[in-house]
């Protein structure tokens, strides 16, 4: 029986082993690092604050990697889910609530009260000057923390899933794109006095990249700006449908996207918390496609207004774009999308609010070759597959019936296949013919042919 179907039954499962001294030492280092970070935030002396920041980053990084190696790197390889519903950190207990409040509070301060982070921002000035040739700001601080989280928790994932070549390569991919394309490259562009551009984010996720104001600003920067506009349009309107046809939405959501990268690394401990109920799925469909429709209409209206065909429209659409940026770009994707990891799972934003996920999902469900095939005859109904699905898909129900999984929400992370002890689930990019045909039907057809 699935652990997610009945948390009370999970309490009967044996708890994980008690922490060993090395594990405790690593966690102590992380705790000391967080205290040093707090000291840097409130220390008015710049030199002392910078020293505290460097100590914090070293302690948190070293402690996280040491803990990950101790817990996942030394023992036998494989997906271990013991005690998930017994820990206060992963079962919506007190630690989870405190973590959620801290994350939510950080995003609120980052977006609307950045002055409170001034001391932390100034500690990164030397790094920012070296990379971008300009002083640090709140977004450089955020980008540094974000990238560090992906890299450190990516190291954890590499140890945890080292038995799976697919998971190793996929984790390395999101780490590479976050560090290279979403952090270093935009900084280097600023160093060469070029527009700060994120080549791994596309419309409608990075919604303003196809807004007339952004397009006009980029074009004025010369050849590189023109290429950026061309790249954004090509990736959004041409490459995305083509790549999704062949590989499903996983090529982006689980391999490239920074939002997905954070969810798959820092959010991995919370993936089992995603709601698998039909009610949650209904709200998912209502909200995410509404967001997609809104951003498509807003983009069209902005271009109509910019064309001058309807003079009064431009004055109306500008406030609408700001309202969208506040409600969706800040509150939903940041405050809720990450702050609610410990309470609702790691893909809250991807599942309920991301317009790129909705766009890719429509393509995947109706036009793609991608599917997850199942072999119902081999399924033992352990529920591991459903437990690890961060998108709220009750995978076990498909596996029991031997039906292929073709869902718009599936990001192709492959964790269901990785966690299956029987090899029941397989990610495939097969021909569209027979795409919806279950493996049991295929098996029956084979028997008829053999007889």
From TrEMBL:
Gene Ontology molecular functions: 4 iron, 4 sulfur cluster binding; metal ion binding
Key words, A-Z: 4Fe-4S, Electron transport, Iron, Iron-sulfur, Membrane, Metal-binding, Transmembrane, Transmembrane helix, Transport
UniProt signal peptide: none
SUPFAM superfamilies: 4Fe-4S ferredoxins
PANTHER family to which the protein is assigned, alphabetical: FERREDOXIN-TYPE PROTEIN NAPH
Pfam families attached to this UniProt entry: Fer4_10, Fer4_5
Ranges of residues in domain 4Fe-4S ferredoxin-type: 370-398, 402-430
Gene Ontology cellular component terms for the protein in this record: plasma membrane
Transmembrane segments: 54-73, 94-113, 139-159, 171-192, 224-247, 287-304, 324-343
Keyword 4Fe-4S listed: yes
The species this protein was found in: Hymenobacter psychrophilus
UniProt protein name: 4Fe-4S binding domain-containing protein
